[in-house]
Design a protein that fits this description.
356 residues
Length: 356
């Protein structure tokens, strides 16, 4: 079982107060449980232990074991139970410890949750939310560190969300629970300790739309989840050399918001797609293909992709960091896109190169 730091429970942060991604997600769960008696949380160690990454800490004491249910160590069983509960009118939130373990429930997710509405002619909606931790950067080795959300974004019948900010962590859950389709929420493990302030005007998030996190004019850097902070850091570095990078946060990986992505590239005429998944058959490949299909004549340079090295994620920290997309690699790709010289000694961090 993955070990993780479990924080002390404190009072929920009101809007405008400093909080963390983990606490924002916990408050979203708390609000959902208080608002709708059909909602319950189920998964391994979500109760007494407080969740593998501490997200549900304190909820068992507040809502009791009927609403916060510790499940046996069988992803197929408890995801299947969640699907059954959704079919029966409940609004289950199922937590899977890490994305790698979700493969043990892939039959339930793909062959049941994603297909029942279609196969029943619209009679059997499956309004289940499945949360899981994704991504690397925490020295948890290959069994706990891959980014497979692009696989799930391939499946019709699912909605796939990747909250990258504290506001999205706090406010994506409510519209996910209101969606009649199964919704998968991928929480990058590197974000749980991220801190910041919730906007006093923050509220429900439009889960149909990508977000422009930083405006720019020279190149669009398109990313999601745990790679968003790296993209913003790269944009700062690029600005110091006179390159204005627009940073697009996909937020929803299925369905992709083609309009926002395309409008950005139509303004900047260049694109760098950053994806912690592997390059081959990746979400970055899908975004690149759509831009080529829909905005070929807007592009002034080949699309660049910055992805993880195509290896099982290493445990050793130096190797892990080298395998992952890093700000330096994003900067290199962006400079290449705008036609700026790229130092041959640049530390690209991961597999940065032209889409070809």
């Amino acid at each position: 079982m993955t070990t993780a730091h479990t924080p002390t429970v404190g009072p929920a942060a009101p809007s405008g107060e400093k909080t963390t991604y983990r606490e924002a997600m916990r408050e979203a769960l708390r609000e959902a449980l208080r608002t709708d008696e059909r909602v319950f949380l189920m998964g391994e160690d979500v109760g007494r232990y407080g969740g593998c990454f501490g997200v549900s800490l304190g909820l068992l004491e507040e809502f009791g074991p009927e609403r916060i249910r510790d499940a046996p160590l069988s992803e197929s069983a408890f995801v299947g139970a969640g699907i059954g509960a959704a079919l029966a009118g409940m609004r289950p939130i199922v937590e899977i410890m890490t994305i790698n373990f979700s493969l043990l429930a892939l039959d339930q997710i793909l062959n049941n949750a994603a297909t029942l509405l279609h196969m029943s002619g619209g009679q059997l909606p499956v309004p289940i939310v499945i949360r899981m931790t994704t991504g690397a950067g925490r020295q948890l080795a290959a069994q706990h560190s891959h980014s497979l959300e692009g696989w799930y974004a391939h499946i019709p019948g699912l909605r796939v969300l990747a909250p990258a900010t504290i506001t999205d962590a706090r406010h994506m859950l409510a519209p996910a629970l209101a969606d009649p389709d199964p919704v998968l929420i991928f929480e990058h493990g590197s974000l749980y300790n991220a801190s910041g302030r919730l906007s006093t005007h923050s509220g429900p998030v439009d889960i149909d739309r990508a977000a422009i996190r930083r405006p720019g004019t020279d190149v669009s850097v398109i990313t999601y989840g745990g790679s968003l902070p790296k993209a913003l850091t790269a944009a700062d570095d690029l600005a110091s050399s006179g390159i204005s990078a627009e940073v697009v946060d996909l937020r929803t990986l299925r369905p992709l918001d083609d309009a926002t992505i395309g409008d950005s590239v139509a303004r900047t005429h260049r694109a760098v797609v950053v994806d912690e998944g592997w390059r081959s058959g990746s979400l970055a490949a899908e975004v690149s293909a759509r831009l080529t299909e829909q905005h070929f004549y807007d592009l002034d340079a080949p699309i660049e992709r910055v992805c993880s090295a195509e290896v099982p994620m290493p445990y050793a920290r130096q190797l892990e960091q080298t395998a992952l997309p890093q700000p330096a690699g994003i900067v290199t790709a962006a400079r290449r896109a705008v036609g700026e010289p790229v130092p041959t000694s640049a530390d690209e961090g991961a597999d940065a190169g032209r889409s070809s």
